[in-house]
Write a structure and sequence with these properties.
six-stranded antiparallel sheet; CCL2-like_lectin; 0% helix; Trefoil (Acidic Fibroblast Growth Factor, subunit A); two-stranded antiparallel ribbon; mainly beta; 137 residues
Length: 137
């Protein structure tokens, strides 16, 4: 398994909009709100900090609120106060799979629809809708 190096990233979905736009993981600025995808703009709300937790897992948090972390908010990834929420990021042929640190089969980060404002959810591996790109910010 290849692990994403610690650093600052824009994380975007491999699923493109019908017009070919890239959609980046976006923080609303408010804790406990579902993460969404929006057109890639390299905006501060689209920059994420990946930190090593151990040899196989990492934490992910918004750059604008560096101490906070992405955790499970009842079926969707949300930003929460620090709590040791960990994720694995496994490289596959079409990008990365992001999955909870325990590697539950239903914990893949998914976009159900490649449109602006779609909430990111957890689910089974859903092909391209479960693939992500980490681009250095």
């Amino acid at each position: 398994m290849s692990k994403v190096a610690a650093g600052r990233y824009v994380i975007y979905s491999r699923a493109l909009t019908p017009t070919g736009q890239k959609l980046a993981l976006t923080f609303s600025g408010t804790q406990k709100e579902a993460l969404t995808i929006s057109p890639l703009a390299n905006a501060p709300k689209q920059i994420w900090v990946v930190k090593d937790y151990n040899s196989t897992t990492s934490t992910i948090g918004p750059d604008t609120s560096n101490r906070d972390q992405v955790g499970n908010g009842g079926g969707v990834p949300v930003v929460l106060p620090p709590g040791g929420y960990t994720w694995t990021m496994q490289v596959v042929d079409s990008g990365y799979i992001i999955q909870d640190g325990g590697k539950s089969a239903s914990s893949y980060w998914n976009v159900g629809d490649a449109t602006d404002g779609t909430k990111v959810s957890f689910g089974q591996d859903n092909g391209i809708l479960s693939r992500w790109v980490f681009e250095k910010a």
